Amino acid sequence: MHFTYILYSKKLNSYYKGETTNILDRLHRHNSGYERSTRLGTPWILLWKGEKTTKSEAKVLERKIKNLSVKRTLEFILKYKEGVPSTDELDLIIKLSELSVPDAPNTHFVWSGQARYKSPDGLVRAFVL
């Protein structure tokens, strides 16, 4: 069995998407600092996992989800929520999707300890995650 997965770091407010055959070992490697690309974001939370029968199927799905924006990643997870490990992660995903920036022109994030964005209606909102 092969898995495609999505991790989330509250520390970086960032997502990591990957593929593996052993999801628990892979999560341990990410959280133990063995993986250079995820070392700064520890601890990582497993938000979603999908099972595939072959490595090539898992790789195809990984490539597809790696190209998704933050908003579309959250929409993907909510659409396929059977891959969410528990209700705690589902609650976090719902909260993040409510704070997510819409895909609209003239909308931007400013990072300085808090996640802020200017909405299309011109109001500036700040959120602490």
Tags for this model:
GIY-YIG endonuclease; globular; 34% helix; three-stranded antiparallel sheet; alpha+beta; 129 residues
- SSE arrangement, N to C: EEHEHHHEEE
Number of helices: 4
What gyration radius follows from the Cα positions, in whole Å?
15 Å
Strand percentage, roughly? 25-35%
User: What is the total tally of β strands?
Assistant: 6
Low-confidence stretches: 104-119, 123-129
Structural class category? alpha+beta
Shape: globular
CATH fold field value? GIY-YIG endonuclease
| CATH class category label | Alpha Beta
Termini Cα gap: 34 Å
- Give the proportion of residues in helices: 25-40%
Major sheet strand order: 2-1-3
The CATH architecture designation is 3-Layer(aba) Sandwich
Largest sheet: 3 strands, antiparallel
Question: Into how many domains do the coordinates divide?
Answer: 1
Mean pLDDT rating: 81
Quick recap:
By secondary structure, this protein is an alpha+beta fold.
Q: Can you describe this structure?
A:
- The protein has 129 residues and is α+β, with helices and mostly antiparallel strands.
- It is 34% helix and 28% strand.
- The chain contains four helices and six strands; from the N terminus they run ββαβαααβββ.
- The protein has helices spanning 23-31, 55-66, 70-79, 87-99, and strands spanning 2-9, 14-20, 44-52, 108-111, 115-118, 124-127.
- The strands form two sheets. It has a three-stranded antiparallel beta sheet with strand order 2-1-3. The protein has a three-stranded antiparallel beta sheet with strand order 4-5-6, with no helix packed on it.
- The protein is globular, with a radius of gyration of 15 Å.
